[in-house]
């Protein structure tokens, strides 16, 4: 029975080893220069840390063997200091930390996702007339939208780029924060609603690679994956021709339907795309009649709408399970958005049929300030500072505000 159990355990071990051998450490087998340099940084940092880890583990085993209970080891209770030992304990980790800090600082700046590439590979520099391929990425619930603004096509859950050409990703999100990650190409970058982030990368080896969302974003998170196809220029042109033949236009109305939460969405291609769609997604104004965030910020920068602009507000409800602009609020009061700008003349025309005229806000709160009548309440006299009035004689305290 014991022999059978041992055979069964050995078979299970072989089966587990064979299944693990099918796994591929993508981070350690990159297909692009940025991912390759990130791998080198990871291995260098690990090697530096092993300079301490390996001796510590070896000494742990050595001390356990040397001072085992069956051996009479020398006991020195009065020993408490060794200058050489202290130098080794403190100097070695300090030097490693300094090296790690310098390596991380240099690597962080060289591999900054916002920084354009300084080379295509270790053996190929970027030509002076090199133009990166621009790809606009929108993280939807729960799928990825890729827009090629220069080529005028778009795709869902499928990315195609040529090898040995820099790719400049511009990323945003439609609802919640997410993370865009192609391990074989470049590092991870976050996509956030109302913001635009950047990522630069390149594929040096052709193939089909896995892309995924590496930040949990709800029910359909596990299916938020896509294939990144790296091909030669001819293969990329064939993919563009396939997209144009697929037909369909990614208009603002189509995007609003696509934005609705859905899971495990198969790849889809669009032959045309609204050239202003990505900017409207970033500025949260895809819906018709809604003011863009950039325009609203510009108005605020100029001093805001003022009291006269209060007629320009329209209720906006936002529910995480329903597309923006519909549904009821989950918590709190209903927020507002500005839907249009009316001049004073437009407002007068709009309200011309009202007998009372345009509504005006009347503030009945008594005004307070210097040279105005001073309140005589006890609370005001006890808590207000002393001021002097030029109308009174010098040195005579004025009543307190």
UniProtKB/TrEMBL annotation:
GO CC annotations on file: plasma membrane
Family: Belongs to the cytochrome c oxidase subunit 2 family.
Naturally occurring in which organism (per UniProt): Paracoccus methylarcula
Record PROSITE patterns: COX2_CUA, COX2_TM, PROKAR_LIPOPROTEIN
GO molecular function terms attached to this record: copper ion binding; cytochrome bo3 ubiquinol oxidase activity; cytochrome-c oxidase activity; oxidoreductase activity, acting on diphenols and related substances as donors, oxygen as acceptor
Organismal lineage: Bacteria, Pseudomonadati, Pseudomonadota, Alphaproteobacteria, Rhodobacterales
Transmembrane among keywords: yes
Annotated CDD domains: CuRO_UO_II
Domain named Cytochrome oxidase subunit II transmembrane region profile: residues: 19-115
Predominant cellular place of this UniProt entry's protein: membrane
Protein name: Ubiquinol oxidase polypeptide II
Leader peptide range in chain numbering: 1-24
């Amino acid at each position: 029975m014991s022999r059978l159990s041992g055979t069964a355990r050995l078979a299970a071990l072989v089966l587990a080893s064979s299944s693990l051998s099918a796994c591929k450490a993508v981070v350690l087998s990159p297909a692009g220069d940025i991912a390759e340099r990130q791998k080198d940084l990871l291995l260098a940092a690990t090697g530096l840390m092993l300079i301490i880890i390996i001796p510590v583990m070896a000494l742990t085993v050595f001390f356990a063997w040397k001072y085992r209970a069956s051996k009479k080891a020398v006991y020195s209770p009065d020993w408490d200091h060794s200058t050489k030992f202290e130098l080794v304990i403190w100097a070695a980790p300090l030097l490693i930390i300094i090296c790690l800090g310098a390596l991380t600082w240099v690597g962080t700046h060289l591999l900054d996702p916002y920084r354009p590439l300084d080379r295509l590979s270790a053996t190929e520099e970027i030509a002076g007339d090199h133009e990166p391929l621009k790809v606009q990425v929108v993280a939807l619930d729960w799928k990825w939208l890729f827009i090629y603004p220069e080529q005028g096509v778009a795709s869902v859950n499928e990315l195609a780029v040529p090898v040995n050409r820099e790719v400049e990703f511009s990323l945003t999100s439609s609802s919640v924060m997410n993370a865009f990650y192609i391990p074989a190409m470049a590092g991870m970058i976050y996509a956030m609603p109302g913001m635009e982030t950047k990522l630069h990368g390149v594929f040096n080896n052709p193939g089909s690679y896995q892309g995924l969302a590496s930040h949990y974003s709800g029910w359909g998170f596990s299916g938020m994956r896509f294939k990144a196809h790296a091909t030669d220029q001819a293969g990329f042109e064939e993919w563009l021709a396939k997209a144009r033949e697929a037909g369909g236009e990614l208009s603002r109305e189509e995007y609003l339907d696509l934005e609705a939460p859905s899971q495990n969405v198969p790849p889809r291609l669009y032959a045309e795309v609204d050239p202003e769609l990505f900017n409207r997604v970033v500025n949260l104004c895809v819906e018709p009649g809604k003011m863009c965030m950039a325009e609203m910020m510009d108005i605020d920068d100029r001093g805001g709408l003022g009291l006269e602009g209060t007629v320009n507000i329209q209720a906006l409800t936002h529910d995480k399970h329903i597309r923006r602009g519909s549904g009821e609020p989950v918590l709190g009061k209903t927020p507002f958005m500005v839907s249009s700008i009316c001049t004073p003349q437009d407002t007068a025309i709009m309200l011309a049929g009202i007998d009372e005229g345009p509504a005006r806000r009347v503030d009945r709160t008594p005004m307070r300030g210097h040279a105005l009548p001073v309140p005589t309440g006890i609370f005001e006299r006890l808590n207000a500072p002393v001021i002097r009035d030029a109308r009174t004689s010098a040195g005579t305290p004025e009543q307190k505000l």
